[in-house]
């Protein structure tokens, strides 16, 4: 079994347990459920830099990145740095994250927040909304076209933006539909962990212009952004490069300074 299949198998067990612990009604009664969400897609369209900065403690490809940073400070630092949005990994087992991280970030900043998760059930979208997210991620590699349609339409009914992530042409063709806002190309192969910006470059011309294009993973310098911008990318998701430092916000600030 590859790592992605393993993550999804574990996620199914986790989501079933969560559903039995916290009923849908309770999520819908969260004060955050009624909050007006902020569109990340709109922010990216109007940005010169397009940075989406991630909170990421560890990962299957790198094990430990940084366990010492405080998500409240990281969110504030990213906001002060002028990023367009923040991504928060909420998976516990493989990334050391949690829904509490999302809630803490919500309390700390007014950025559009992306719940970075392995979404396999509508219930996780209700959780995203109840804990303060503005955007959800759908990963084409783990979903059927019908599931992508069902989850993206449900997310839109909750006023959440949808970022659909692909890694190859087949996933892209399977996924294109009007209920998506952003098309993300993951430069990391989630089965082998190989990273190449050529993935974003190669798929760019196949993405219709109606979607905001986002390049994800393996971006570690300004040159990479300059290389990707001519391919139409407006968003750049960066995790490890900021999180491996002692001050993720300051690192993002210097990065953005260099881009302007
Ligand atoms: O990062 C991983 O090792 C990973 C493994 C399996 C599934 C997902 C994974 N990462 C999620 C992400 O998409 C990245 O955290 C995000 O794009 C930022 O990447 P990076 O800038 O390379 O930290």
Automatic annotation (TrEMBL):
Class of the enzyme per the UniProt entry, highest EC level: lyase
Positions of the Indole-3-glycerol phosphate synthase domain: 4-254
One record GO biological process: L-tryptophan biosynthetic process
Top-level taxon in the UniProt lineage: Bacteria
E.C. no: 4.1.1.48
Reactions the enzyme catalyzes: 1-(2-carboxyphenylamino)-1-deoxy-D-ribulose 5-phosphate + H(+) = (1S,2R)-1-C-(indol-3-yl)glycerol 3-phosphate + CO2 + H2O
Keywords in alphabetical order: Amino-acid biosynthesis, Aromatic amino acid biosynthesis, Decarboxylase, Lyase, Tryptophan biosynthesis
Keyword Mitochondrion: no
Pathway linked to the protein: Amino-acid biosynthesis; L-tryptophan biosynthesis; L-tryptophan from chorismate: step 4/5
GO MF: indole-3-glycerol-phosphate synthase activity; phosphoribosylanthranilate isomerase activity
Family named by the database record: Belongs to the TrpC family.
The protein's name in its UniProt record: Indole-3-glycerol phosphate synthase
Lineage: Bacteria, Pseudomonadati, Bacteroidota, Flavobacteriia, Flavobacteriales
